[in-house]
Amino acid sequence: MEMTMLQPIYATPHPLAGEKVPLTIFDRAAIDIFVPTVRAYAAPAPSNEVVKESLARALAHYPHLAGRLVVDDQGKRFLHLNNAGVLVVEVTVSVDLDDVLVDGAISNIGELYPPLPEENVGAPVFQVQLNRYRCGGLVMGIIYHHHVADGTAMSSFVRVWSSAARAGAGNKDFIVPAPHVHDRASTAVPRRTPKPMFDHQNIEFKDGISKSYAVVPMDRIKNVHVRFTAEFVAELRSRVGFRCSTFQCLLAHVWKKLTAARGLHPEEFTKVRVAVNCRGRTNPPVPMDFFGNMVLWAFPRLQVRKLLNSSYGQVVNVIRNAASRIDGEYIQSLVDFGTVADMRGQKLQATASVAGTMMCPDLEIDSWLGFQFHEMDLGTGAPCAFLPPDLPVEGLMIFVPSGADRRGVDLFVAVNEDYADVFQQICHSLDSPTDDTEFVSARL
User: Fold this and answer.
1) Strand 396-401 relative to strand 363-367, pairing
2) Care to name a GO molecular-function term for this sequence (predicted)?
3) Residue tagged active-site, from 64, 145, 146, 200
4) How do residues 112-138 score in pLDDT, each as one tens digit?
5) Does residue 390 register a pLDDT over 90?
6) Most CB contacts within 10 A, which of 52, 108, 137, 273?
């Protein structure tokens, strides 16, 4: 094993070099963890030197990733763009990639990315592990801290890194696809008189009396992988009865099936925590290439009886209506809330679940369908597999473009071991179409 602290390669120093960047209210609402992802490249895979040199070139345009989280004398976190570098770990594996990669999955995935730091402050916020197999194949594990960036931002970084790698040795022809927006302060400007209009203390942050979920030993939570083919998604769309996204129709379907598998009481309520990209929802809009955090959450909610008896179209409308509430007024209210909290010296704790949490009867969904993580071509083609880590929270799920079926979707979900088998038995059964005419007005 070899460990290197990789610094960016600058043609000229970045304008933000040395800056101490305060975390915005969106950064602070994000979960305080490192997010792992794993990509596998069959031989002939890009060499370690190509990966490292292209990474160093790309980092020159993303100084936050070479910085550190630091705490000031008032106990507030900020990002110090100190050019301290990215940790790169190189490992040699004495087996062929085909020996461990089975049906697009690897059993020991937790060993393929750097160990998650015990203390987030002061650790490299971006770390890479290059696992080189006997056959020449490569598995690249990455972790990054969520206070630095959300999935949309990291997707833009992956595009630049890929472009640098494909430019070849020396990266002489490497051109950044587009300028990137790094001004975090401009995304969180309060009104002259801050006036929160919504109950953010109970939504994005904890108030100490918010609903709490049970926490159990991790061995009671089973990670399940389900593949939905392009044909399945097309049939599901047709049963919705009107134009909708792949994400919306699949979420409606999985919400129904997980709820049925759990065997919840018909009168109980269930909700889904849905990540919403706020870049295009602010007034004025934040550019899509903004590098940072701009995600909030919608909470579609239904009674179990209603959910299971509703058509797909009706459930999709509930999801859409919840997401539509995350508008410019709501986002501005959160910015004002953060300003007021700071004025009062109030410490905020994000509503993120700890490992072992049982979210039942609720769910949380992250969609990576719009990201380009699975297309990261470093010069030898896209990965043959793209994998999220094992999920530590029951009810947490991720949609990922399928590596086996480019138009299909892979679902990774953590479920209670008591109903994992039931969910796998029913997850591909489709509800019968029903008439959605009463919901026409809601769609217009």
Assistant:
1) parallel
2) acyltransferase activity, transferring groups other than amino-acyl groups
3) 146
4) 999 999 999 999 999 999 999 999 999
5) no
6) 137
Last residue of a domain, one of 187, 222, 243: 187
Quick one: which of 64, 62, 95 has its CA closest to 79?
Answer: 64
Residues of the chain with pLDDT > 70, as a percent, come to 93
Q: Where in the sequence is the domain holding 143, given as residue range(s)?
A: 2-187
We report the CATH number of the domain holding residue 58 as 3.30.559.10
Whether 378 and 234 share a structural domain: yes
Q: Is 293 exposed, middle or buried (0-12, 13-18, 19+ CB in 10 A)?
A: buried
Domain count, the chain: 2
Tokens of 287: 């550019």
Q: Is 61 a catalytic residue?
A: no
Query: Which pTM does this prediction carry?
Result: 0.91
Give yes or no: 146 in active site: yes
